[in-house]
Amino acid sequence: MRRLTGVVGAALGLALVLASCGDGKSSDSGSGGGAKSEVIAIAADPLEYINPLNENGSPGIQVAMAMFAPLVTTDPNTGKLQNVMADSVTPDKTSQTWTIKLKPGNTFQNGQPVTAKDYVDSWNMTAEGSNAWKNNGFFSKVDGYDALNPPTADGATPKPTAVKTLSGLKQVDNLTFTVKLKVPFSQFGLTLQYLGLAPLPEEVRKNPDAYKRKPIGNGPYKLAADWNAGDDIKLAKWDGYKASAAPEADSITYRFIPNADTAYNEFLAGNVDFTDVPSTKVKSFKTDAPDQWVTSVSSGANYLVFPAWDPRYKNPKLRHAFSEAIDRKAFADLVGLSDPAKGLIAPDINGYRADACKYCDFDATKAKQLLQEAGGFSGVVNISYSTTSATGQIFAEAIGNMLRQNLGLQVKYTGKQGSEITELADSRKLDGLRFGGWGHDYPSIEDYLTPMFKSNGDANFAGYSNPALDALLAKGDAEPDQDKAIKLYQQAEDIALEDMPLIPLYTKSNAYLHSAKIEPRVSKYVGVSALWATFK
Amino acid sequence: MIRFVARRVLAAIPIGLVVTLGVYALVFAMPGDPLRELAGDKPIPAAVLAAKRAQFHLDDPFIVQYLLSMKDILTGHFGTTFAGADIADQLRLRIPVTLKLTLLANAFQWTLGLFFGIYAGFKRNGWVDRSLLLTTLVLLAVPGLVAYFAAQYLFGVELKWFPVSGVLEGFPRSYLLPALVIGVLGFAGLARLLRTSIVETVNADFVKTARAKGLGEQRVLWRHILPNALLPVITFIGLDLAGMFGGAIITESIFNLPGLGQFMFQAIKLKEGGVVVLLSTLAFISFIVINLLVDVLYGVVDPRVRNV
């Protein structure tokens, strides 16, 4: 279960850019020409539509990032929020009602001005359950969400509701609207950088299906050519973009190459300017493409998850023993491009502490002692791994061997489809340990702790629940001062580390290849972006 | 002749039903929830999940899902994939790609196979024959997957003789390398079969008779030996073409050719029973048609089987 699909929020824009003539070796791959042209290849199945509001997968969000602009974004140099479409985002005293003011003078690519009404109507459409748009869940924090999403019986199609608008969403004037949340939420301003909240112009809202291959954005690039099924996506710079500085490239083509190894070979052949390094090439990419690679810490953390529903794992001391028995350095080396994890959040997040975890250093003696104090372990430890991943079994056996050697436990392994493991865990039937991973939607320590550790959190893989932690999260959510809020979240993290419903394992870096023609933007806050590459 | 064809087509219908039902059952039995697989680790809003489930009949019992899928196929309402692609559109785009690849690969395979098979069979135990036996033995032992990646790296990345992947350079350039690899890997079995068949035929009585009548060596070879030696090879065509689709799944994935094989691969990955059954039905129909043609052709070549 290490598939962090759909994890890439707007803050994490990793546009994979292929360019027509890689390293000066002539090879025309059909780009728009021009001095600063790039061709973008994505190692995924081709997109069927472009609509940021109905898109939470990374390929779709990547393409949408070029065509749409978010309200706010993270400054790649400072890590601070900066405005894009927004002129100001202001919470009230309790952080429950937020006022969003738009910059005047911005238009959609069809020439219509971007107004508060566009945002309010687009968001209402997305929040309506019967539309079944993928970013529907984002609005669950907003007042009135439940009226648009009544519970639906299994197997029934959600019916359109009589109510069509979120009661918490109010247009004040042409450029101002307010969002009232169900409960105070100090991090809401950060969440607004998610690209899945981009507005759609009125003509698209009337008939989204008719525009699924003809998106009208409000961002720096527009479609340069008709885009039919099976075509590459060709974009050209749109000169009407005024909201913020635009990237350098004049034209960009996105190419979809579902097989990641094939995409890698396309790069080596010089047809590609920028591509992901697939997991199979982690050991060889530096020699395959010397001086043409960049790495960055990925905003994701990887864990070993305990089943909270199995009484044998109930004693926290036992969980600490497991954690101490794992040689994280060796494991990170096995994974490749990884570092041992020392906490529950990714290292590039504001509020990360390198020494948060007290039980994450390899110490076999202490591990044995803790296991004894916990009263030992009866039976066999089962480790489930995903057969969908090429490395699942290897990683499971590595962990299993450490538990066997350092704690003298009996271990067995079960390979299943990733989704099957999720289902078993969701229905509290899974036996033993499993791997889990999480990457944030917006760069906040809160976006790790809430989904994973809050009772009934969206990604609470372990089924963990602790009222003290929930209370601290609520306090952090209600604290308008960001520094104070982070302190509260860190206290929540300490509780989670003490309870250890899951063991932090490693944080991974992502690696990318780029041709000599471009220099991708590398930021410790938002990762690597080829969309924002500079040309030499 | 008409009766023969009609009989074969009618016999194919129950087989087709069993095949599609079997394929559907296999997909249905695959573990995991396809919609969750689509989402990875991210939670999907309940409303989205419910709507998708209803749209694709995922909550119905197995047999109902199968019947609904078959109804869609037979009435030509292909609908969309889980990801929202229009299936009819996809077929329009993908069938030509797979046809081009298959035909080109077959052209290579038959040219090589017939040439070497006939040459080695006529000139038994010569150096061509010996080296052919050795080469084909090696080729038969090479796994396709390895050969495709190796060829892509060597001829595409290093030597730059061919495009690495995709169909941007159109036909035939984009198809040459994968077709060549398939052809070279596939001709081995064909050449060996043909050679053996020729060697067996050479010792048949009718060949001795022909020689005794004083016919020239060339005439004996081309008019008496070869037509008879080709009979088992014709059977080989039908089986081989059936296997082509299976091979296309791997080839099209590695060379990023947007054909039916790649579509099948994606559909299996996502447990899209409807798409898998649709493509299997297509494959089955083409298999029936090809074999029918092969049998008719057999009758043309060999008068003995005409009235069977």
From TrEMBL, chain B:
The keyword Cell membrane appears for this protein:
yes
Give yes or no: UniProt keyword Repeat.
no
An example GO biological process term is:
transmembrane transport
Q: Which positions, given as ranges, span the membrane?
A: 9-30, 101-120, 132-155, 175-194, 229-255, 275-301
Q: Check the record and name the SUPFAM superfamilies matching this protein.
A: MetI-like (SSF161098)
One Pfam family in the UniProt entry: BPD_transp_1
InterPro entries per the UniProt record, alphabetical: BPD_transp_1_N (IPR045621), MetI-like (IPR000515), MetI-like_sf (IPR035906)
Where does this protein chiefly localize?
membrane
- Look up the record and report any one GO term of the cellular component aspect: plasma membrane
Q: Which UniProt keywords apply?
A: Cell membrane, Membrane, Transmembrane, Transmembrane helix, Transport
Compartment(s) of residence: Cell membrane
Membrane topology classification:
Multi-pass membrane protein
| Residue ranges of every copy of the ABC transmembrane type-1 domain listed in the record | 95-294
Tell me which family the UniProt entry assigns to this protein. Belongs to the binding-protein-dependent transport system permease family.
What this protein is called in its record is: ABC transporter permease
The organism's lineage is: Bacteria, Bacillati, Actinomycetota, Actinomycetes, Propionibacteriales
